[in-house]
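Below is how a single chain appears once it has passed through the pipeline. First comes the sequence as given, then the structure the pipeline wrote out for it. We keep one example in the README because the format questions we get most often are answered faster by looking than by reading.
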Amino acid sequence: MERVGLILDAESIAELVELAKEAEDVKFDSVWATELYRTSFQQLSAVAQATQTIKLGTAVALAFVRSPLITALTALDLDEISSGRLILGLGTGAKRTNELWHGVTHGKPVSRIKECIEVIRLIMNKSHLDGPISYAGDYYNINTRGYHRPFKPLRSNIPIYLAAVGKYMAQAVGEVADGYLGHVVCSLRYIKDVVNPNIKSGLERSRRSRKDFDLASIITCAVSNNESEAKQAARATIAFYATVRTYEPPFKMHGFEKEAQKIREAFFKRDIKSMIENVTDDMVETFAIVGDADECLKRINEYREYIDLPILSAPHYFLDFDEVKEYQRAILETFGK
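Resulting structure:
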């Protein structure tokens, strides 16, 4: 079976755990927990204890709103709970939400995430050894004198995947991460023409081989025999992400700037109906995979030429959870073994 991942989304933690168990039963490679309305790590902690083999990824844990020490320790704990199944997916988050929601400075995200990952790796590798960890950077100045973790990690080399949309962040992914996590709005063309060349540049800069690197991307997928309803469901998710300026480059590349602007204007008026109505059929075709099982399998195979791991996400924003469950069930039936 070719690798495929699933974004976990449910109304309750109990239902989320059941969804992960179903994904494991049909041989999905991995399940991934998002971080907006819940925290990635806590969701996966529950999943870890109810599953045995499926990999567990954070997609994504916000890197700047936690200290590198807390991120590293949380990852080490969760890796132990899951018997070595964690993939630590990190993202910078958006400037507005970092500063207004979390009250933390954003800084220059590319430079800061490189430092952050370097410090996290130092802590995961050395916190159980003798001697303090020292690091002096523009964003992090660390000296752990007096701290010693009194047990060895299950794995000190937990894989770190980094989310990226813009070209400079994609280069950073190739420089410092073990894998790439593409965003929902990273279309096939955007991955091909923008993401992959810049990751290649970053890999060359760090003198690493592509074969030692994992390319994954989240893809909105609505498997249904009712194409009209499925398109409408996908429109809502696309509308949600069109409101975030951090994700503007793919919309701009595809010529959807005017539509995105209208969606943002409707968002600030809390006019969800207009937000969704301004998502065109072309936008759905570009940013989502919609259709019956055969069509969705075909479209995902087109992505596989440019990524190693498609991570499928049922449409979920502005939808009833019962409807989300139907799309999740269809994904499992279509892509499971």
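The two ends are 7 Å apart (CA to CA).

See the next section for the split statistics.
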